[in-house]
Design a protein that fits this description.
Length: 429
């Protein structure tokens, strides 16, 4: 009995770092976005009154479908707008659990309006994953706006219950297993038939893409048969491959290869490309991810750091620095308050008190100097949490508009707070 309790605790109840789920949140948000948001563009054809609709009576009761179908067009439009808002909130990790619940309810609503717009299988898999995600109150532990606003630089260390991550692992492993089982028990048995060869020579419209080797496979039915049997055997073995530490890397690699091949050869829903590969990475022990981060931090701790020079009398500036400390995952930066520095020229020969008062500066160990917008743009490349906004800093015209925007904020930064040391916008002392 004790052995069973210990096994249950080890498999589900023990606390482990939650950083894997923090990254998985982004993959879930992208999968939802690529599935649902495009269906809002032809809103009239998909969801409004008069649209051609397919209702999934196997998933919803008749009462729920009747109730949802009575939605007036104005309500559908409002729900689409709210969905976009909570989806973006979930993507950036703001009010993460609330955003997850609201987004999931929106998915159910639009699924009940029209299952045809995406496809029932993709919807069903996505909704099961979203329901599990809704129960996680700590998706914003890292790589999220919630984490930055909490200003906790050690968030990626935080221990959390492993239960939901284990359920997500089991979900994916048994999707592979039951997919393989279906191929040998349902109509069209892969062990007695040759469906891959059939797809190569008689592809149904909208099923098989014309890829580089399709003609080659069309001319080799025996190879198609062997390939089909291998696929079935791998799918049946995936739970063992993924949960066994000795074969886990093999299972993850085969899963990635499978999904990349699937998206290149067949017209399948985007969920198979955006969600499943990320879910495979949940099998990597989170302790190894944290250990890798700590190793990187030790390396940078013994090397020359990049100096970020800021105004310590500006609460807006110090608050921004606290956020940068959270984003500095590998400890590459050191922060210098110029107000405590007797001679800023010692930090870099081109610096003066007037310069460092006017804007943020960044000094590389090589001596390279970046100021204002260009310092911020350099930080984007240094801090992984800022990678999503890299396109804003490098779009055409950013070299002109970026410095102007930054200068406006820097000039009026004291207006963003009340500071007893600096009650106006000209406190250079």
């Amino acid at each position: 009995m004790n052995n069973m309790k210990n096994l249950w605790k080890k498999l589900f109840l023990e606390e482990r770092p939650s950083i894997s789920l923090a990254f998985f949140r982004i993959a879930v948000a992208l999968a939802v976005g690529f599935h649902v948001l495009p269906t809002f563009v032809p809103l009239k054809e998909n969801y409004l009154s008069g649209a051609f609709k397919v209702l999934n009576t196997n998933f919803f009761t008749a009462g729920i479908l009747d109730f949802i179908q009575q939605s007036p067009d104005a309500l559908v439009i409002v729900m689409a707008a709210i969905f976009c808002l909570v989806w973006f909130s979930f993507l950036i990790g703001y009010k993460t659990q609330f955003s997850a619940i609201a987004m999931t309810l929106g998915c159910y609503y639009f699924y009940a309006l029209n299952a045809f717009a995406i496809g029932t299988l993709a919807w069903d898999i996505l909704l099961v994953t979203l329901v599990l995600i809704c129960f996680v109150p700590y998706l914003g532990d890292y790589f999220s706006l919630d984490c930055v606003l909490r200003r906790d630089p050690s968030a990626f260390y935080r221990q959390r219950p492993f239960f939901i991550q284990r359920l997500l692992q089991m979900q994916l492993a048994f999707i592979y297993f039951y997919t393989g089982l279906y191929k040998v028990t349902a109509q069209g048995n892969w062990l007695s038939g040759n469906p891959i060869y059939y797809l190569m020579i008689m592809p149904s419209e909208g099923v098989t893409k014309y890829f580089l080797l399709r003609d080659f496979f069309s001319a080799h039915p025996a190879l198609c048969y062997v390939l089909g049997v291998v696929i079935v055997m791998i799918e049946l073995l995936m739970p063992f491959l993924l949960f066994n530490p000795a074969t886990r890397l093999t299972g993850i690699s085969l899963g990635f290869l499978f999904h990349v091949t699937l998206i290149l050869t067949l017209d399948v829903p985007a969920i198979f490309f955006f969600l499943f590969p990320a879910q495979l990475l949940l099998f990597i022990p989170p302790e190894k991810i944290v250990a890798w981060i700590e190793q990187r931090r030790r390396i940078f701790a013994h090397s020359a750091k990049i100096q970020v020079i800021y105004d310590g009398h500006c609460q807006f500036c110090t608050a921004s620095i606290e956020m940068l400390k959270v984003m500095d995952l590998f400890g590459r930066l050191t922060f210098v308050d110029y107000q405590t520095c007797p001679d800023v020229s010692l930090l870099h020969s081109q610096l003066s008190k007037e310069k460092v008062h006017s804007q943020l500066y960044l000094v590389e160990p090589t001596g390279d100097l970046y100021g204002g917008f260009f310092a911020f743009r350099r930080l984007i490349l240094l801090l992984p949490m800022l990678y999503p906004v890299v396109f804003l800093a490098y779009f055409p015209g950013a070299n002109v508009l970026g410095p102007l925007f930054y200068a406006g904020i820097a000039k009026n930064r004291y207006l963003f707070h009340i500071n007893k040391k600096c009650v106006d916008n000209a406190c250079l002392r």
